[in-house]
Each structure stands twice: as structure tokens, then as C-alpha cells.
Amino acid sequence: MNFSAKPLSQTITQLCLIKGIDHVVISPGSRSAPLTIGFTQNPGFNCFAVVDERCAAFTALGMAQQLERPVALVCTSGSALLNYYPAIAEAFYSDIPLVVLSADRPPELIDRGDGQTIRQENVFANHILYSAQCQEGEEHQLQNETLINVALNTAVELNGPVHLNLPFSEPLYGVTADMSVRPQHVPVRLPERVEIPMDWVVDQWMQAEKKMVLSGVLPPAALNKGTLDRLLLDPSVLLLSETTSNIPHSASITAIDQLIAPLSESEFSELRPDLLITIGGMVVSKKIKAFLRKHQPKVHIHVDPKKAYDTFFALDRHIKVTPQQFFDAISSEHLARQSSYKDQWIKVKNHRLQLHDKYMREIPFSDFLVHQRIYSTINTSYSLQLANSTAIRYSQLFDLSHVSSVYCNRGTSGIDGSNSTAIGMAMVSESPVLLVTGDLSFFYDSNAFWNDHIPASFRVILLNNSGGGIFRILPNAKETDKFEQFFETKHPLNAGSICQMHGLDYQLVSDSGSLEKALDGFYEDTGRARILEVDTSACPNDEILLNYFEFIR
């Protein structure tokens, strides 16, 4: 086995391997040759080549999202590194561990007019957990080892992105059969046990007749079923979860907007919780945010090992444990209280569902109907990745409890890397992956399919309404001058040529009958990844969605 002749490369690769960081996404470049040689020549690493750095970073993000451990990124110097930034920001806000390893020119060449050279040190300052500048030379070896250990341990311990900027002087392609350094490994620290302030928590719990548990993004199995069952036996507890919460339970409210959008002011007052407990990451529903900001809870507790956002401007306490640890502690106290809170709103939920089913039977072919067909026919062995904008918002109106796991890039809620994230997820997932996306998100990230590692089981359903349809449902947006050109961005594109270029199976449908037929065999093994494009450009999608909330009122 060969190694890069650069001691700095040897130090990086050895410490990554020791800490279990063995998946590496590499974009081509010359300055990064020592790193590329170091990773690809070692059979302990799983290396993946992705040319487009923006796609590469989101691909790594999708992998780390699934693996729940850090994935490394390698790029050359210059603007290549800047293309990582959208995914770095998403990882920062979604608590996904990435290790960014950027090659650089030697410091004496920065701002000297040398090619492919920018100021790379600390370039992600506002959205990184840790960044460091290493230096070449034997005299810097101990310092480099310290910086690298801290960076890698931070990614593991705190679940987020870190950045190491690594200058390499020429020659860059030298190899050796023997390692010249044996870096010291500083072990990852186990999280310290945090005591829950049970006296205070119990006091708040017992006082509250109306307790609302609101969940944002969570990985599957973050709360076990036994804990949920015990929690929801309490008639004073109402659980509101979302598609990305991965908390399927019959006694929870999973379609939040469906429940609260039609409420009157007096009903909002009835729903207002005495005690709000929030868990998980970002919440999709704008309506629940607006409600809880206007009708603030008497007490708000956020439960998360790492951070707490004061989303509703009412945060009283951040308890730094996992939701499982918190609710296990609560249930051990047997603190149920008599209340009609849960039953009252479950009845409203069931009434809304009856109206929902009636509405779905009456509407014509449209985005809304297509989403209903997708989720009612999904192969239950598939994991689901959702694009942002309309795809994630429509999904919130349907029951996805039969889907094994649901993901979406909700840290920054951008449309820029949905394809790449789904592909990265599919590359390492034990389950096959389905991406449901809109046209703008799909075409924005079309370079994602320039990737030799896409599994044949990968599936995409693309809803193409020829523009940013979500803008049509925003208040007063359609009345804006030049709306179609600069907001909706109307276009005539379809995915056929992209699929032909990248060797993907492709089918285009534009009516209910064709959609039903296409979905019937969509998940069958064809030996190639497959994209089903659904053209809804002629449908009054905005009217159908807005009328829905009036109908269920």
C-alpha cells in the first residue's frame, strides 16, 4: 500500500481512520493530490468521486445524515471550496457532521497573484463548529496533530461541520511505501451525564392542564413506541409532530396545518398550551410558529442535547438531554393529570380527516392529487427524501406513518441540494430511497446525476408545474409586477434530456390514468435508477390548495 509523501496527508488519513471517519467524497484537483492519494490508496476508506463541489458537499451531507457519523470532503484550492458553503450551512443548522479538508497554496503565495488562490483560512467562520489552519513542515507536526484531533473530535462529539485548511507545496504527487509519521490519537470524549432538574420539571408538569409536545426534525427511533404510548396515555398531553419528526402514532397530530389553519380566534385560545415542550430540529409549519408566537405558552421547555432556539420568544428552560431521556424521566414519575385537552383536539383532527378524504375524492388532477397518489402507493421498504418548498409542505397534509423514515434539508430550507442529498443518502442507506421534488429544486441541482455511484434502486418523482408554484399561494404575490418572470420563473423544461445524458430510466405523465399506470410498476427493478416526471403545469394548483383550507373549515 502506498501513501502520499506529504506528512500532513499521512496525519489526516491516519487520524480519520482511527476515529471511524471512513467515507470520503472527493472532487478532482491538483493541489489536493496528497489528500486524494492518501485516501484512495488506503483500502480502509470508501471513496467517492463527485466533480461538482456543491453537489459533492450535499452528497456527503446525505451520507452523513444516514450514517449518523462524519463524512469527509476533499477539494482543491480556490473557488472550489466556496461551493461547499450551502451544504456547510445546512449541516451547521441540521446538526450533521461533515469534515471539510481543503487543500491550499502555501501561505506565502496568498494574495501574490498566484492562480487558483483565495483567502481560504476560516472562510466558513459564521457556520462552522471549528476551523483550523495547518502548516507544512516537521516543526509543525505536533501542532498539526493537535488541530486535527480537535477538529475530528468536534465533528464526532457535537454533530456538525468542521474545516481544516491544508497548505501543500509542490511536488504534489509523490508517494512512499512507508509512513513517516505516527500521529498521536486523542480519543473522542463521551458526553457527560446531565441531570434533569426534575423538581422544577415535575412542578411545571403538575400545574399544566394543557401540555403540548411539538416535534421538529428527528431521526427515526428517536423516541421508542413504549415511551410514546406512556406519554400519550396522559389526557393532558397533545403531541404535534411533522413528516420529518419520524414519530408515527395514532394519538398524535401529524398534519398540523390541517388542524390549525381553519381555527377561529377563540379556538386558538382554547388550543394555547400551559406548558410547551419542544423537541427536535426545525419546524416546517409556518402556521404553528405564528400561533405560538401570538398565543404564547405559559412555560416553554426545549429538550435537546446541544442547542435551543427561542422560536416562539417564550423559552424558559433548555434541558440538555435527548427526548428519550427526558420523557423516560417524566414517565417514571407517573405524572398524568385529568384533562380534556387531548381528546378535544383529537376529535377535531378526526373531523378534519373526514373532510380531507371528501375533498380528495372531489378534486381534479393537480399537485395535491399527485401527492395523495404518491403517498398512498409508496413502496413501504423505501426511505423518503423530500425537496424543500412545495414538496415538503404538501407532505405535511398526509399520513406517512407507513413510511420507514422521512428526511428533508430543513436546516436552511434551501432548494439547492435536494437531488444530491437524496443520492448521497441512497449510496449508503440500507433501504432504497425515493426523492419527491418540484421542478425548480430538481433542475437547480441537476448536476447531482453526474455521479457514478447512484444505486439502481434510486427513484425520483418530479412534479413539474413549470415554475415556482409555491409563490402563487403566498399572500399578494401574484399581484407583483412581472410575477411570472422573476418570482414564479416560468419555464418549458422537462427532465427527459437529463435522464438520457446520465443513463436514467424516464417516464413523463400528465393525467390521472397515466399516473396510476406509471406508479403501478414504478418500484420494480429495471437495473437503472428511474425518474417519473408528472406534468401539472396546466392545473390550477394554487386554487385547489387554497380551497382545501376553506373546505375543511
UniProtKB/TrEMBL annotation:
Name this protein carries in UniProt: 2-succinyl-5-enolpyruvyl-6-hydroxy-3-cyclohexene-1-carboxylate synthase
Function of the molecule: Catalyzes the thiamine diphosphate-dependent decarboxylation of 2-oxoglutarate and the subsequent addition of the resulting succinic semialdehyde-thiamine pyrophosphate anion to isochorismate to yield 2-succinyl-5-enolpyruvyl-6-hydroxy-3-cyclohexene-1-carboxylate (SEPHCHC).
Catalytic activity annotation: isochorismate + 2-oxoglutarate + H(+) = 5-enolpyruvoyl-6-hydroxy-2-succinyl-cyclohex-3-ene-1-carboxylate + CO2
Enzyme class: transferase
Organism: Aureitalea marina
Domain of life: Bacteria
GO MF annotations, alphabetized: 2-succinyl-5-enolpyruvyl-6-hydroxy-3-cyclohexene-1-carboxylic-acid synthase activity; magnesium ion binding; manganese ion binding; thiamine pyrophosphate binding
Family: Belongs to the TPP enzyme family. MenD subfamily.
EC number: 2.2.1.9
A Pfam short name: TPP_enzyme_N
Pathway: Quinol/quinone metabolism; menaquinone biosynthesis; Quinol/quinone metabolism; 1,4-dihydroxy-2-naphthoate biosynthesis; 1,4-dihydroxy-2-naphthoate from chorismate: step 2/7
Thiamine pyrophosphate enzyme N-terminal TPP-binding domain ranges (all copies): 12-118
Cofactor(s) the protein requires to work: thiamine diphosphate; Mg(2+); Mn(2+)
Protein's gene: menD
Subunit note: Homodimer.
Keyword vocabulary terms for this entry: Magnesium, Manganese, Menaquinone biosynthesis, Metal-binding, Thiamine pyrophosphate, Transferase
InterPro entries according to UniProt: MenaQ_synth_MenD, THDP-binding, Thiamin_PyroP_enz_TPP-bd_dom, TPP_enzyme_TPP-bd
Ranges where the Thiamine pyrophosphate enzyme TPP-binding domain occurs: 398-527
Cofactor binding mode and count: Binds 1 thiamine pyrophosphate per subunit.
Gene Ontology annotations of biological process type: menaquinone biosynthetic process
